[in-house]
Design goal:
Oligomer: single chain
Number of strands: 5
Distance between the termini: 81 Å
Helix content: 55-70%
Length: 765
């Protein structure tokens, strides 16, 4: 249209009081048209009276930089339109598809939240329910998606661009240099940049400079078309990609492309001699690498192939197969040329270290670490060698952790933390998680919380979630600090793979048992412990964990007044001489009115975990209190509380028995150690609106309880009778009844059970 018309239109719009909204769909067709400049002129001169809504698959027909500077534009792009995992799950349920979490993670990774992809893939899974639990099988479904992308996206490009996309689709991540190598087009960087600006199916790689990625579904469609149109070209393209990545010092990617071209010997040599075996074991790409190499011919007769077979067996948690292939690799290593012996030996050690951790063989883990330390002297100081060393240290620390050698495990895992080179987020995260669990079990609860890291974003994908060890560590922290909500939340967050580990199983069982005991369900607590101890499935539980579980079961019955049931868990106490069983035996003797065994002074142990150290001081306090030595009881109780205070360790105190709890919370001890009655961390971490709603729904205590009334209430919560409370407090039965009536009145309760429940809601006990 003429310039004068544009001016008149802009003036007419400018004079309006109500805005005009214009919606342009498929506006990318105007990009190379004169209409785009005319439209932009009107938009800039119409004031605020023209509201332009543009929907486009390419850069829209307006000058975006100018409007960004003016703050007059709102951009909604693919990232904002992507579905969250929760939205995708809800959408799939409309199609009667309910996916397990690992399959949903795989679906979100493939679709990246693209709504059309979620729906079409969900419909494909609805027709193939047998694939719903097989994440890797998702690559083979979704024919409708291929047709959609072919018709709606690929055919919109000119033939030269379509050919470029097909030839470069063989790469999962596409450096511009590789694109030039595969296509022979010197202008590949400019073309990729233009495609990334104008198409949500081509994007810049987040982790590499001058690198691009195709949307997984778009890439799959392109590969299918390439196989149909030029099947003979595919192996040649993979060979060229392998050579390019080898020259770029990216052995893992080079091995993937060599394997895709069925160049198996080259693939295993690249992995081993390129020191890329850690990449086969660790990180988000390890599953893809193992999957690509799963067709490796079994008859390949060299040490490199045996190492790769062992690493794949390790990834599948096949200890027997891994050990067999490792033995074969050691036999064949003698035939390796001298220039490759160091890389082969390092590859064997990396897999052997993982096997030692999986089987709990501490001596094998330590000897492997020694071997790698020697090998490092003859290998170049490079990131792959540093990564291998860090992995072996982490494996050794995890093996020590599973063996119960917590202090040494923490030292080795800390050393592993420092050894990891940059860009190793996943293995470093697993190291942090293992260290967090070791520190939590030692009683360093604040340090464990720091190591576990901040709370992931609500819609974070699988890669951003905490590792199982970190979630178990935080659940332990919640139970030890008396924060039941925190403990339950992190138990629920433990990924499905976690419970197969005997360490996680035992720690989670201890946490759940303590939560049941706190809720007044000792039978349920012991039942959980027994199930964990005598489970027939999965790897056997380490002896030290079995002892901790037995000690926890004994304490559960001791504190609830059933020493007869506690004693059967302690029959082996004199044989094992562990601090846990020794402490429980002493508590049992004290509960029966006997003198605790004097030879069980567990405080002599230098590396005693904090909870056991606090428990030992509490035992001394309880013994002194029972003997009538109030000064000694106060001194021991003060030592226990001072040790527990920095970590806010409440659980041993909550299990100390009614009389000792009353003593701890009364008089000068309560004044000095006011942290015992602080608000739990879970309350402080809630959102303000959650705090407000919980406070509004919670009863309010108008008249506070006296010290004696609180002691009676604690005894009531321990399910003691009136007569037992009177004996424990050295008062008459009538005095106890008077206190009970006052408690019921102040808590607005008609029965004792109701008063106990209300007191727990208020945080009084």
């Amino acid at each position: 249209v003429s310039r004068s018309f544009l001016v008149q239109l802009a003036v007419a719009l400018y004079q309006r009081t109500e805005p005009v909204v214009v919606v342009l769909d498929d506006a990318d067709v105007l990009v190379d048209s004169a209409v785009s400049d005319q439209l932009d002129f009107v938009l800039r001169n119409a004031g605020g009276a023209l509201r332009l809504v543009i929907l486009a698959r390419d850069e829209p027909a307006v000058q975006l930089p100018r409007h960004r500077l003016a703050g007059s534009i709102t951009e909604i792009r693919a990232a904002e339109l992507a579905a969250t995992p929760e939205e995708a799950q809800a959408l799939l349920k409309l199609h009667e598809v309910d996916l397990p979490s690992e399959t949903l993670d795989e679906l979100m990774g493939r679709t990246r939240g693209w709504m059309a992809g979620v729906v079409l893939l969900g419909l494909a899974l609805h027709d193939r329910p047998d694939l719903a639990g097989q994440p890797l099988a998702l690559a083979g479904v979704g024919g409708d998606i291929d047709v959609y992308l072919d018709e709606e996206v690929l055919r919109g490009y000119p033939p030269s661009t379509r050919r470029f996309l097909l030839q470069t689709s063989i790469a999962d991540h596409l450096p511009s240099g590789l694109a030039e190598e595969l296509t022979g087009q010197p202008g590949a960087p400019r073309l990729l940049s233009r495609l990334a600006r104008g198409n949500a199916f081509v994007s810049r790689c987040e982790h590499h400079i001058d690198c691009y990625q195709y949307h997984p579904l778009f890439r799959h469609m392109l590969r299918e078309r390439l196989s149909e149109d030029a099947p003979g070209a595919v192996p040649q393209l993979h060979r060229r990609a392998s050579a390019w990545f080898t020259a770029a010092n990216e052995p893992a990617e080079a091995a993937v492309h060599a394997a895709a071209a069925a160049e198996w010997g080259a693939a295993v040599r690249i992995l081993v001699h390129g020191l890329a075996i850690p990449r086969l074991r660790e990180g988000p790409g390890s599953g893809r690498l193992a999957w690509v190499l799963s067709d490796l011919p079994a008859e390949t007769p060299d040490a490199e192939s045996a190492i790769v077979f062992a690493a794949i067996a390790l990834a599948r948690r096949d200890a027997t197969g891994c050990a067999w292939h490792l033995a074969r690799a050691r036999e064949l290593a003698a035939q390796t040329p001298p220039e490759g012996t160091g890389a082969v030996a390092l590859g064997i050690c990396i897999v052997a270290s993982g096997l030692a951790t999986m089987t709990g063989d501490v001596e094998a883990a330590l000897s492997t670490a020694d071997a790698v330390e020697v090998l490092r002297r003859d290998l170049p100081d490079s990131d792959p060698v540093r990564l291998a060393w860090a992995l072996v240290l982490r494996d050794t620390g995890e093996a020590l952790l599973r063996a119960g050698r917590l202090q040494v495990a923490a030292t080795v895992l800390t050393k592993a933390q420092e050894a990891f080179p940059g860009s190793c987020d996943h293995p470093r995260g697993t190291c942090d998680g293992a260290l967090a669990l070791a520190e939590a079990l030692r009683g360093r609860l604040r340090r464990a919380t720091e190591l576990a890291g901040p709370e992931p974003e609500p819609h974070a994908g699988a890669a951003a979630r905490r590792v199982p060890a970190a979630e178990v560590a935080l659940a332990w922290v919640g139970a030890e600090t008396g924060d039941s909500d925190l403990a339950r939340r992190h138990l629920l967050a433990v990924p499905a793979a976690g419970p197969n580990d005997p360490l996680f199983t035992a720690v989670a069982a201890l946490v759940r048992a303590r939560l049941h005991l706190a809720d007044g369900d000792p039978a349920g607590a012991v039942a959980l412990i027994d199930r964990a101890r005598w489970a027939s499935e999965g790897p056997p539980m380490p002896a030290w964990l079995d002892v901790r579980l037995a000690a926890a079961a004994a304490r559960t019955w001791t504190v609830t007044g059933r020493p007869d049931l506690a004693s059967r868990y302690l029959v082996e106490a004199t044989a094992t001489h562990t601090p846990e069983l020794a402490l429980e035996l002493a508590w049992l003797q004290l509960a029966r009115g006997a003198e605790p065994t004097p030879a069980i002074d567990v405080l002599r142990h230098a590396d005693l975990p904090l909870d056991l150290r606090v428990d030992a001081w509490l035992l001394r306090a309880a013994h002194s209190l029972q003997s009538g030595d109030i000064a000694a009881a106060r001194a021991s109780a003060d030592r226990a509380l001072r040790a527990a205070a920095p970590e806010r360790l409440r659980r041993p105190i909550m299990q100390a028995g009614a009389r000792l709890q009353g003593f701890l919370r009364g008089g000068e001890l309560a004044a000095v150690h006011g942290w015992l009655n602080e608000a739990r961390p879970a309350v402080a971490m809630r959102a303000p609106e959650a705090i407000a709603s919980s406070h509004s729904a919670r009863p309010v205590l108008i008249e506070p309880l006296t010290e004696k009334e609180h002691e009676v209430l604690v005894n009531l919560a321990e399910l003691l009778s009136t007569e037992e409370i009177a004996r424990a407090m050295f008062v008459s039965v009538n005095t106890v009844r008077t206190h009970v009536r006052a408690i019921l009145r102040k808590l607005a309760a008609s029965r004792r059970n109701e008063a106990i429940r209300r007191a727990r809601e208020l945080g009084i006990i």
